[in-house]
Specification:
Layout lengths: L3 H5 L12 H10 L4 H21 L8 H10 L8 H15 L13 H16 L4 H19 L11 H14 L2 H20 L28 H9 L6 H16 L3 H5 L6 E2 L4 E5 L5 E5 L2 H13 L24 H14 L9 H13 L4 H8 L15 H7 L9
Antiparallel strand pairs: 1-2, 2-3
Length: 407
């Protein structure tokens, strides 16, 4: 059995990882971990180093499965986070060259090359984001797998019925939103094939739409007084409260999307001009005026709470490791927690709730749809048409009487 207490002493560090533990300890210190936490992690990793030596595992083959074996053989009940600690070390070793980076296996088949080419087309020519590619490419691969199996694609054999059957199967297995994504991805892929001369017939025009009318419902929004209640729920005496308040102010006052808040960098804040640069959809950049109250919330967070770290992102995790948010879903979590604190239970609780709330409030204060579209940076005019349904009083004034009913 491994004695982790003995392994903690630096003069007793042994094994193939021993020479890397000092550097990793410095990294943990720089990421804001408490000293006791750093000691616990190094104690575990010193034992892991000794185990790697005893098992004669070459560093070139060291991976996550070895961490699982080590924790199983440790003879103690692993603490929460032990597996994560070893993964942290492995990532550090790959970043510093201590172990080789394991590259994903490249699909060199005709199908794999075609999917790669489609991904490059979406990224370079269409300007789509990496997250969009992550949604589109698995759908395309599934379509090719169903149609051609392990064989090279032969698009001369592809018929309209094949496309319809694939969409129907996927539509039955998921939500309407997911079905719409399948339709959009497949239609884009079929147009790509025709553009490249791989498909003689324009099958994209035969791709059916999915019923789900985007203007069928009122936009999900909070009244202005509930938005203020949401903002007031942040305890601005604490670091987490000041950070979350700044995030919510960007959502509520400027109508930013969750991904736009997550991607915000220190370089995007132009304090001299009082403006903010927003990285929007389709890699579009927009400059918006920075309201005084939003700027004050950002200043409070940046001066008091944002730690010094390597990333230029504005918003950083409160707890170690000190780094930017892993995904925009963190912004949705901040909104969800604030709604819970404020005692609000709307049907929709994502970051877009505050974007819709801002647009709805502006319309009720007599802002035009054009002005709302400019603030929210809508690329298509019909995107803002849904907000025309919010002003019920104005709609009553222009509504025609029901047939057979006297006015």
């Amino acid at each position: 059995m491994i004695d982790l207490n003995k392994a903690l002493a630096k003069d007793r560090w042994i094994g193939r990882l021993a020479s890397h533990l000092d550097g990793f300890e410095a990294l943990l210190d720089g990421q804001g971990y408490a000293k006791t936490t750093v000691q616990q992690k190094i104690k575990l990793l010193a034992g892991f180093s000794a185990w790697v030596e005893r098992q004669n595992v070459p560093l070139s083959l060291l991976g996550e499965e070895d961490a699982d074996r080590f924790l199983t053989e440790l003879g103690l009940r692993p603490r929460r986070g032990d597996a994560w600690t070893i993964r942290q070390l492995l990532r550090y070793l790959r970043d510093t060259g201590g172990v080789p980076v394991l590259l994903p296996e490249v699909d060199t088949s005709a199908k794999g090359k075609l999917i790669d080419a489609f991904g490059e087309f979406l990224r370079k020519e269409r300007g789509l984001s990496a997250s969009t590619l992550t949604n589109y490419l698995p759908i395309v691969r599934g379509f090719l797998d169903e149609q051609f199996g392990g064989n090279d694609p032969d698009f001369d054999r592809l018929r309209v019925g094949d496309v319809h059957r694939f969409i129907v199967r996927r539509a039955q297995a998921g939500s309407p939103g997911r079905a719409k994504l399948v339709v959009t991805a497949l239609r884009s892929f079929l147009r790509f094939l025709q553009q490249r001369g791989l498909l003689a017939t324009d099958l994209a025009v035969a791709v059916p739409g999915i019923a789900g009318w985007r203007l069928a419902h009122l936009p999900k929004a909070l009244p202005a007084e509930q938005v203020e209640r949401l903002l007031a729920s942040c305890d601005r005496r604490t670091p987490a409260g000041r950070r979350d308040y700044a995030v919510l102010m960007l959502l509520a006052r400027l109508g930013l999307r969750g991904g736009e808040v997550s991607a915000l960098t220190l370089d995007d804040l132009d304090w001299d001009c009082g403006e903010i640069v927003v990285h929007g959809k389709g890699q579009r950049l927009a400059r918006l005026p920075l309201p005084a109250d939003v700027g004050a919330a950002l200043v409070d967070y940046l001066r008091q709470d944002r730690p010094a770290c390597s990333t230029r992102r504005v918003f950083i995790r409160i707890k170690a490791p000190r780094r930017s948010f892993v995904s925009p879903s963190t912004i949705c979590c901040i909104v969800h927690r604030a709604l819970k604190r404020a005692g609000l239970t709307p049907a929709f609780q994502g970051a877009h709730l505050l974007r819709h709330s801002l647009a709805t409030d502006l319309l009720r204060r007599s802002a035009s749809l054009v002005e709302i579209g400019q603030l929210l940076r809508h690329s298509q005019p019909n995107t803002r048409q849904i907000y025309a349904k919010v002003d019920i009083a104005a709609l009553r004034a222009i509504a025609l009487p029901w047939p057979g009913v006297s006015s």
